[in-house]
Each structure stands twice: as C-alpha cells, then as structure tokens.
Amino acid sequence: MRGVFPEVVFTVMNVPVRDTVISTWFTMLLILTMVFVVRRRWRGALGILVSWLLENVSAIMGERADPYVSLLGTLAVFIGVANAIGAVPIVVSPTHDINTTVALALIVFFSVHYLGVKQKGLLGYLKGLATPLFTLPLELIGQLSRTLSLALRLFGNVLSTEMVVAVIFSLLPLIVPVPLIAFGIFTGVLQAYIFTVLAAVYIAAAVAGNEPVKTKKKRG
Questions:
Q1: What is the pLDDT of residue 175?
Q2: Nearest residue to 142 via CA among 104, 112, 99, 107
Q3: Which distant-in-sequence residues (6+ apart) come within 8 Å of 24 by Cβ?
Q4: Are 84 and 188 contacting, i.e. CB atoms less than 8 angstroms apart?
C-alpha cells in the first residue's frame, strides 16, 4: 500500500524529486496530450467544455464569469485529472502531497485579492475588508483560515479515498478493482468540483458590491 508521505524518487543537485512531483509533470503532459488529440479529432469539443464551464461558473457567481473562467476552468481540469489518476492503485495523485494542495489554495488566495483590487481599486477593496474597522482582524483570520481549509479539505479527501481504495484492493485484488477505481475517479472529480465552486464563491464575494473604478475625464 502506498505511504502517507511522498517518496523521494531521485535527486537533482541534492534537491529531492518526489513521486508527487513526477505525477504532477505526468498530469500536465496528459492534459496537454488530451487537448491536442481532442482539437485534432473533435474540434468543437473544447468549445462545448468551455461553454459548459462558463455557464456553470456564471450560475455559481450570479454574473457573467468570462474574466474568471480561464482560472477556474484550469483549476477544475487540473484537479479533476490529478485526482482521477490517483484512483489507479499503482499511480500516486499530485494532490496526495499537502504541498500541492497548499499551492493550489494559495493560487486561489492571491487571485481573489488581485481580482478584488482590480475590480474595486485598492482603497475600495481595503475599505470593503475593514468596514467597520474593528472587523479587520477577524476578516484577515477568515481569509487565512478558508485558504487553509481549501488545502486541507482537498488533501484529506484525496488521501483518505486513496487509502481506502488501496486497502480494499490489497485484500480483494481480483474482485473489486474496477468499482473501486470508478469510485476513486468519481470522488476525485467531485472534490475538483467542490474546490472550483468554493474558489468561484470567494472570487464573487471579492468582486461584488462595487463597479470597476474608472478614471473620470474632464469635459472641455
């Protein structure tokens, strides 16, 4: 059965390269290959996928999500594929590593604040965080805790699913591999959906409330 902690496969200039890093490279290569094949064989499939993502993200955010669908769609596809390949007992998922899930959560954290500042302006965004002023410490704690929650939720669910699949597969290797792999894939895709929905909700909260700040032109 696979260990809880990532294993070092080799080192480069004394820098350890773990199995989850290799699986991350494999996941990115797999996604690029899938995109290339789909574009060659089914030209309209990617457009359908983008439209589907745009429709669902817009429904979650309550507004047209065109500026955000590239970020959220990338997160959804990467996490979905990364979790799905981990359902195979001999393959380790990139999200099996807490470092990967923390990195994904930090992408969401900084994207939320960047998009909030871009939409409202720096002063307008800070004013929204500190209104009234005494709530600012609580707001900062909330921002950090939900980022930590994103990372731990994804990591914990992926790790627990992989461990359950590995244990049952080791006990009954010839009877239930296909249902277990299907269960692992379903769970992985579900976690990708939940992560993306939460990211969309956080972005919607950051950009809502004010119109974009525009520079006023003097009339001659």
A1: 59
A2: 112
A3: 82, 94, 100
A4: yes
Q: Where are the domains of the chain?
A: 8-207
Residue 12: strand pairing partners: 15
* One-letter identity of residue 44: G
For 33, the token pair is 């290959």
What pLDDT is recorded for position 63? 76
CA distance 4 to 133: 43
Yes or no: say if 125 and 218 are a contact pair by the CB < 8 Å rule. Answer: no
Half-sphere exposure (CA, 13 Å, Cβ side) for 80? 14
**What token pair was written down for 143?**
């921002």
- Report mean pLDDT in 10-residue bins for the chain, 220 residues: 64 80 89 87 80 84 81 90 78 85 91 86 78 74 84 83 72 65 80 88 78 42
Answer whether 18's CB lies under 8 Å from 8's CB.
Answer: yes
